[in-house]
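Q: How do we represent a protein-ligand complex in a form that can be generated token by token?
A: Start from the inputs.
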Amino acid sequence: MDKEIFVTRSSMPDYKEYTEAIKPLWNTHWLTNMGIYHKQLELLLKEYMKVPDVSLTVNGHMALELAIQAFDFPKDTEVITTPFTFISTTHAIVRNGLAPVFCDVKPDDGTIDETKIENLITEKTVAIIPVHVYGHVCNIEEIQKIAEKYNIKVIYDAAHAFGIEYEGNGIGVYGDASVFSFHATKVFNTVEGGAVTFNDHKIYEKLYNLKNFGIRGEELVTQVGANAKMNEFCAIMGLCNLKHISSAMEARKHIVEHYIRRLREIEGIITFEGNEKSTKNYAYFPILITNTYKSSRNEIYEKLKENGVHARKYFYPVTSDQACFKNKYRYIDIPCARSLAEQVLTLPLYEGLSDEEVDMIADLF
Ligand code: T4K
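Then emit the structure tokens for the protein with T4K bound:
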């Protein structure tokens, strides 16, 4: 195998398109601090994502940390979340001084099991942070009902859910806020970047302060804040990539459908079904290697690697089992999350992956 195939490859605009687009920066020398391209991207994303408000950030993780911070939860309170996610979700909760309470997930899509949330609520619970993992939409209606019943907030980690619509609405309109990642590995990227979407404009002001040192005038700082702004080079990358987002998603759809055609007959391999109320963004292509498959998940992972195919075990181990969190928080049985983490393999998926490459990967199974 002369060519290595990685789990993903960043989408990039044509070199000329990007270099032309950044040229004006050599006239203005305005490179960051909410420049004109930052503003343009916020406006275009509002429209594309069908949300009332967007606040851009330096990356998805800081978007999540600041979105949580924006709600001023008292310290030492609890947040119900999923352990079947990227480590960022749990870090953001803990770095806000809150305790994660790990709820199990559902076997059919890997999202938080809404039927298990209520049992975990205590007088210390202040929020639920579910994840639309792989772009699979959580049970929004039930989660909202629980949140209203107990008067707690819902902040969606929508890092994987860019561009998804649910019942015709932008996915970012649900809950009190939703957080997106525009990292280089995502379906839409700004190199590094992220965003928070929300319905209450007061959150925009809060986030503005939190991402820019609380500065509201040359001599006025109104609150403590971090530096988590998106710079102009990243905003321009986003503006360029946004122009091509529908063809990028079409290309991914074609690849996913090709994979499914090739893999669906193989004993022991399961692909996830979509949710009929939501659109898909083809952000990831996770499959489950169950015990009726001829070898273990780890064996096929190694075999692929030996052949230059770098699939990933997103998300193994569950975050609650990571060294920094193990045995630190309330013990909760999470058999389904553990089982998915043991079985999952995320196959290469990106614009430019050819049918021949997909066939070569499928032939290794
Ligand atoms: N919440 C959730 C649920 C998330 O999944 C994430 C991020 C976040 C929050 C936080 O958002 P950010 O702060 O990251 O915006 C990657 C990404 O770094 C991370 O963004 C993503 N989730 C996570 C699932 O995957 P790694 O450590 O697996 O990435 P890495 O460096 O191994 O890259 C994977 C492959 O991507 C490479 O083999 C090749 C390709 N690649 C990578 C880079 C860095 C490119 O084509 N271009 C690149 O620039 O974490």
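The chain has a mean pLDDT of 97. The longest helix spans residues 245-263.
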